[in-house]
Design brief:
Shape: globular
CATH architecture of the largest domain: Orthogonal Bundle
Number of strands: 5
Number of domains: 2
Order of helices and strands: HHHHEEEEEH
CATH class of the largest domain: Mainly Alpha
Oligomer: single chain
Largest sheet: 3 strands, mixed
Helix content: 25-40%
CATH superfamily of the largest domain: Winged helix-like DNA-binding domain superfamily/Winged helix DNA-binding domain
Structural class: alpha+beta
Number of helices: 5
């Protein structure tokens, strides 16, 4: 993990008043360096041989979600994808694009989608947008 990433991890844990452990540092480091949402399994793969077990990763993720430094970006194939919450608000997450060919998911920070208006008595509390199709690389080879 780069020194800049280590420093950012320490800042996140300190601001959330969470104890700094190797597992928590490694998990946040993997999310910081990924620049895209990751599953528990992908987090483990990025950490490598010294990765904590899946229960430890899930517990850390739930702690991070409760502290509002990580959020559940979306669920796909019954698997949650997690990412740092610094690009999102409490009521709206930036859109994500998942390629149906290669499986890559990208954050679309530059795309602005207005919050869905209240209609028919529904009260919108949180909005997630997940777009699916072919990424630029896959669309060129199609």
């Amino acid at each position: 993990m780069e020194d800049r990433t280590k420093h950012k991890v320490e800042q996140l844990l300190k601001s959330a008043r969470l104890r700094r452990t190797k597992a928590r540092s490694d998990i946040l480091g993997a999310l910081l360096e990924a620049h895209q949402p990751l599953t528990r399994e992908q987090i483990s793969e990025r950490i490598g041989a010294c990765a904590p077990n899946k229960v430890t990763i899930y517990r850390a993720m739930e702690t991070f979600v409760a502290a509002d430094i990580v959020h559940k970006a979306f669920v796909q194939d019954r698997t949650w994808y997690f990412e740092l919450s610094h690009h999102c608000t409490t009521d709206q997450c930036h859109p994500h694009f998942s390629c149906t060919s290669c499986g890559r998911t990208d954050c679309l920070h530059e795309l602005s989608i207005p919050m869905t208006a209240d209609s028919g008595g529904y009260i919108i509390q949180h909005q997630r947008v997940q777009l699916e199709g072919l990424c630029p690389k896959c669309s060129k080879s199609a």
